[in-house]
Amino acid sequence: xxSLAFVNGKFSSLEEAKVSVEDRGFLFGxxxxxxxxxxxxxxxxxxxxxxxxxxxxxxLEIPIPYSKDxxxxxxxxxxxxxxxxxxxxxLQITRGAYPRAHEFPQEVKPTFxxxxxxxxxxxxxxxxxxxxxxxxxxxxxxxxxxKSLNLLPNVLARQKAxxxxxxxxxxxxxDGHITEGAITNVFIVKKGTVLTAxxxxxxxxxxxxxxxxxxxxxxxxxxxERVFSxxxxxxxxxxxxTGTTTDLLSVVEIDGKVIGKGKxxxxxxxxxxxxxxxxxxxCNLQ
Amino acid sequence: xxSLAFVNGKFSSLEEAKVSVEDRGFLFGxxxxxxxxxxxxxxxxxxxxxxxxxxxxxxLEIPIPYSKDxxxxxxxxxxxxxxxxxxxxxLQITRGAYPRAHEFPQEVKPTFxxxxxxxxxxxxxxxxxxxxxxxxxxxxxxxxxxKSLNLLPNVLARQKAxxxxxxxxxxxxxDGHITEGAITNVFIVKKGTVLTAxxxxxxxxxxxxxxxxxxxxxxxxxxxERVFSxxxxxxxxxxxxTGTTTDLLSVVEIDGKVIGKGKxxxxxxxxxxxxxxxxxxxCNLQ
Lengths: 286, 286
Known about the structure:
Two copies of one chain form a homodimer. The radius of gyration of chain A is 19 Å and the shape is globular. The first copy, chain A, has eight helices and 16 strands. In chain A, the strands form two sheets. In chain A, strands 8, 9, 10, 11, 12, 13, 14, 15 and 16 form a nine-stranded mixed β-sheet that branches. Chain A has a six-stranded antiparallel β-sheet with strand order 2-1-7-6-4-5. Chain A is an alpha+beta fold and 286 residues long. At the A-B interface, strand 3, helix 1, strand 6, strand 7 and helix 5 of A face strand 3, helix 1, strand 6, strand 7 and helix 5 of B.
């Protein structure tokens, strides 16, 4: 069982996996990425991830050098070769390597990278007791709907969170409205209704976000996609965050303020269970 | 005479110059860069470039693995080895290679890259006749004062400019004020006064910008650093842009509208000459 990379058609160890210093991913962040969860050797919600990847690539005019079927087969092979059953599968496509100039090169081959690494999910204690978060000014660019490699603000926000002993940094805009977390989407629960920011250029439309909204609605829970404020966040009955590596995690303290009863709430817990059930079903887990 | 790279202590051809796929520059744009002009084998305004690089690195908590003197000696060596006299020297420092997680790794060595390439300046026709520009919404992040690798909005803006047959894209904010260009700082001239956006988190404090302001003031030209609007840009007597690879370039058409008399203006031309004179003096050019 070992981490593996696949770079432009070649499988290798991660130590051997290299790209040009003139890769536009390295020089400009001119590329896209995705992270896919592998449970029991099977990629979870792969179709939805690939759909988004193809959409982002189209928007940025980065050609993906494989068809969806070819991608599926490469992904299956890297998981099989690695021998890893519980994993993160990281996908990155850049516009390719070319002498540095901002405009798109006329003739360039995109760089295609896959990395598979063992991953067993968020710490059990966090799941049981809930996580801490901080809030952080949302100074990101205007196209957060694109899963691009321009992630320095997210890096700085998450670093601050970790320094403060928190799991996540939740972004708020100048007027106080909440967008999303540095690596997750953010939900609040108030009087039985679940709220999360609507799809827009301010948030990444997370696959887990979409799954949780669907699951909640199937359970008869009202979900409203609307902008909410920092004040509503602090005063929510429950707060939870969702993401591919995070699954669904209750947030019980934000900026040192206790949220709701200070432990994972009823709706969050029931949605967490339902999400794990969905993973089990789709990935044939015991 | 050949392009050369220097990556983490090793000189090589550009073809051989590689970094890890897990380099945080490649994954997150978690790094900084600078471009230095080399004239007659000598780096122009090197002290100012290095000062800014050290400032940016400090702000982002990226350690620079060399002292200023060591940097100077490596730069001198790469220029000498390349045999190139007229060049762009590209410097990039990232937080280093580490398994992907947004927060700063505890133990990681920064990645240090230098690239030297021949460069002979902007096309003579553009200098003589002036350039076209377009305007483009400034959707960049909130820390444009940092010379970071999160350059996708600049890439998209410059690509649009090139598609439109223009040299540069000039950013305007939602309220219509101008910040800077995708790869340059922007100046306007009105009734003999030179205006440019003040230093703030909205612009990169360009070394050429600073040089041109100094030169203009020495010539007795009034320079005001203040916010100006898209309307003022369109109605300026002269517009010019400055940057390390651009030097000083007159802009004579923006969004299809003719600026001033539609040719390089008197003040722009005199500042261009003075800038070239300064390069000659500092770099011992004939």
